[in-house]
Amino acid sequence: MTRYKAIVSYDGSQYGGWQKQLNTNSIQEEIEKALKTMHKHQVEIVASGRTDAKVHAIAQVFHFDSSMEVKEGHWERALNSLLPKDIRIQKVERVSDEFHARFDAISKRYDFLITNDVLNPFLENYMAKEHHTLDVSYMKDCATVFLGTHDFTSFTSNKIDPRKPREKTITRLDVIEEENCIRLVFEGTGFLRYMVRMISQTLIEAGKHRLTKEDIKQMLEMKDKHACRYKAAPQGLYLVKVNYKGE
């Protein structure tokens, strides 16, 4: 058996998220279905982490094991011929048997996009729409609250496993004003469920002057899963990159 590392891009608009689940289709299910067609038996894949319904990925990473002899560069062509057009395999490469897409990841980057172009139907699935003009300068100032290592209990799902560590390190949180959107860039060692979306909406509320920097500090310091009631729309979120040691 040979272990392979794969990079996949996908438009999450029509999916219930990465992970297989009942009553909705998922990215994982579609990829495993394609691998099953090739192998004539079930092949499980392991991702760097889950993405939620309607969330997109530019470079999600997963690994799988195969006994098939496939030439370099042919995996991509074979899998893409079997996958829906909104899921595209970018690269497949051999890795050591010890490689693990989830446990070997050392950091990730997520981008969150916000637009004021609320009447544009072509952005509906790809950006969070905001009617208010946001104070970008104040959002940048408030973003510094989240930099460094913190317990992010206040900015995660109520259903999170109590055994899961809540301490994470954010190394970068930029608020960038672009021609047609505001881009929030998150980089860190890892992120809890809904963490990026909850922080994003908190910064949006600050940009509308509905929250102060002090309010946000207090929210973070409370370490209370009920402290933050904000969560941004999923379609503005993109998993951009997963980093591994030695790359």
Q: Can you walk through the features of this model?
A:
- 21% of the residues lie in helices and 30% in strands.
- A hairpin with a 4-residue loop joins strand 8 (167-177) and strand 9 (182-188).
- 34% of the residues are buried.
- Strands 1, 2, 3, 4, 5, 6, 7, 8, 9 and 10 form a ten-stranded mixed β-sheet that branches.
- With 247 residues, the chain is α+β, with helices and mostly antiparallel strands.
Name its key features.
247 residues; alpha+beta; ten-stranded mixed β-sheet; 10 strands; globular
Identify the overall geometry.
globular
The run of helices and strands is EHEEHEEEHEEEHHE
Largest sheet: 10 strands, mixed
Please state the structural category. alpha+beta
Given the structure, what is the number of helices? 5
Rg over C-alpha atoms, rounded to the nearest angstrom: 19 Å
Show the helix and strand layout.
Layout: E1 2-10, H1 27-39, E2 46-47, E3 56-66, H2 74-82, E4 87-95, E5 105-115, E6 128-129, H3 136-143, E7 148-151, E8 167-177, E9 182-188, H4 195-207, H5 213-222, E10 237-244
Parallel strand pairs: 3-10, 5-6
Antiparallel strand pairs: 1-3, 1-4, 2-3, 5-9, 5-10, 7-8, 8-9
Short description:
The chain is an alpha+beta fold. 21% of the residues lie in helices and 30% in strands.
